[in-house]
Amino acid sequence: MHNADREIVRRYKSRRWIACVLEFRGRHRIVMSPNRYTELFFLDEAVAFAAGHRPCAECRRERYNAFKGAWKRVHGQDQLPFADEMDLELHPTRIANGKRVTYRASLNSLPDGCFVQIDGSPYLVAGNALLLWTPEGYARRVERPKDSIVTVLTPESMVGCFRQGYLPEIHESARALRL
Q1: What's the rounded Cα separation, in Å, for the pair 144 and 111?
Q2: pLDDT tens sequence across 107-138
Q3: Angstrom distances, CA of residue 175 to CA of 59, 100, 122, 134, 163
Q4: What is the dihedral angle through the alpha carbons of 131, 176, 161, 47, rounded to the nearest 10 degrees?
Q5: Among 124, 154, 127, which Cα is nearest to 138's?
Q6: Which of 8, 48, 76, 121 could cross-link 19 (Cys pair, CB 3.0–4.6 Å)?
Q7: DSSP characters for the chain?
Q8: Where does the pLDDT of residue 22 fall: very low under 50, low under 70, confident under 90, or very high at 90 and above?
Q9: What is the C-alpha to C-alpha distance for residues 83 and 137, in angstroms, rounded to an integer?
Q10: How far is CA 168 from CA 5, 7, 36, 81, in A?
Q11: How high does pLDDT run on average in the chain?
Q12: Is-contact 31 98, C-beta < 8 A?
């Protein structure tokens, strides 16, 4: 949340953190409208997930439904979950006591689409490689180390969805690096 001077006054207001498309049904929004939520722009869906944002149920309905299907499989549910149910569980896996939640895991155990931190830099897990993230795009490919324990940036509940077949969309800059 930000004020009329575009100063951040609150890190978050609710547990509903969603990733939307830039254009939807001709709607227009003024970026950083006073006393409204602050828009964030992500390179791709994998980065949005690493930041703790799930697909929007309105403007990204197909991706949202796919995410719900993966969530259902992770939790062994009979019915597809509602957004509130997912957000209630997601929130403590992304932020706790005002701080970002990360966890440690074996790099070998992580599915594609996860973000990890190695030597202070964020990397996307992509097959047998790690792709260095920069604000401009993925910049460098390194082989995925064997038997490494890493800090995982993508919330654990979302990693579970990746394991159940949800593959986040990746920016085109990753294509040339994955060869």
Answers
A1: 12
A2: 999 999 999 999 999 999 999 999 999 989 99
A3: 26, 29, 18, 15, 21
A4: 60
A5: 124
A6: 48
A7: -B-TT--B--S-SSS--EE--S--TT----TT-TTSPPP---SSHHHHHHTTPEEPTTTTHHHHHHHHHHHHHHHT-SSPPPHHHHHHHHHHHHEETTEE--EEEEGGGPPTT-EEEETTEEEEEETTEEEEEETTEEEEEEEPPTT-EEEE-S-HHHHHHHHTT------THHHHHT-
A8: low
A9: 30
A10: 35, 31, 28, 19
A11: 85
A12: no
Q: Model pTM greater than 0.90? A: no
The angle formed by the CA atoms of residues 59, 168 and 83, to the nearest 5 degrees, is 50
Asked if 48 and 21 count as a contact pair (C-beta separation under 8 A), the reply is no
pLDDT in tens, 31-79: 656 666 666 677 899 999 999 889 988 888 999 999 999 999 999 999 9
Six-digit token string for 60: 């990204």
